[in-house]
Amino acid sequence: MKVATFNINGIKARMPRLVEWLDETQPDVVCLQELKSSDETMPTKEIEAAGYGFLYHGQKGFNGVAILAKGTDPVEVQRGLAGEAEDEQSRYLEADVFGVRVGAIYLPNGNPHPGPKFDYKLRWMARLRERAKALLAREIPAILAGDYNVIPHDDDVWDVRGMADDALMQPESRDAWFRMLGDGWTDAIRSRHPAGHVWTFWDYQAGGWQRDHGFRIDHLLLSPAMADRLIDAQVDKAYRGREKASDHAPTWASFA
User: Fold this and answer.
1) Which annotated residues bind Mg(2+) (predicted)?
2) Where in the sequence is the domain holding 149, given as residue range(s)?
């Protein structure tokens, strides 16, 4: 089984690239982020024509997450995170697919730091951790995949000093990340690339892609049962270089 995460940066604008990638790589499960589409205007027909069931939690012009499953429909378990009833941002979706609990995540960016957006990011991460702990307690195979907007290690970014003040690298962001790993989750990409220097995002500005100035913020966290089944974890880097591509590359893990 192959599970991928892909910040599509506008599902309507990137639909040709998304369908192209689905056709060429045939992932079994895909978590999408930053759909930038309301539920009412979601391009469901194109996804279904590509052979995938499509569960989505949209938001007009911003955010939005989805779970795709090849040849079947994901069974929704939960949308949104508990703990902040007034939070209306579409950033979390959870479903059962092929006997695995899958959570699609679009974690808040948190910039500018410090400020209300960074405070919201930290609160959101705390709420995510509570949900993640509940999943671990059930001892079910689970994957939490998405754009976490956290650069965990200094070797996960091309320019440490240039990003030092960014919300993605703050000690509080990293602390929240490592608390989740300490609870029992495994970072799939890191487990296969312990030396780092694997990027999943390249900014459109300043020739980021052309100069390979990127960083890693797209992650798949695995429960112990899924970590035991892990075969490989990689980034489909070449797709970032295609015409009108997202600024993220698809990131995936395969399992026995």
Assistant:
1) 7, 34, 147, 149, 247-248
2) 2-255
- 7 annotated as ligand-binding: yes
147 is catalytic: yes
DSSP state string for 53-94: EEEEE--TTS--EEEEEETS--EEEEES-TT-TT-----EEE
Beta-ladder partners of 234: 252
List the beta bridge partners of residue 187. 221
Catalytic hit among 56, 106, 148, 239: 106
Count: domains in the chain: 1
The CA–CA distances, whole Å, from 63 to 113, 141, 183, 221, 241 equal 20, 27, 27, 20, 23
Which tens digit of pLDDT belongs to each residue from 238-249? 999 999 999 999
Contact residues for 123 (Cβ-Cβ < 8 A; gap 6+):
83, 84
Query: Residue with structure tokens 């007034």?
Result: 86
Closest to 199 (Cα-Cα) out of 243, 232, 236: 236
The answer to whether 236 is a known ligand-binding residue is no
The annotation status of 248 as a binding-site residue, yes or no, is: yes
193 labelled ligand-binding: no
Cα separation, 102 vs 94, whole angstroms? 6
Task: Establish whether 28 is a catalytic residue.
Answer: no
**Tell me: the pLDDT tens digits for 218-244?**
999 999 999 999 999 999 999 999 999
Known active-site residue 197 = no
Q: Which residue of the set 28, 147, 156, 187 is catalytic?
A: 147
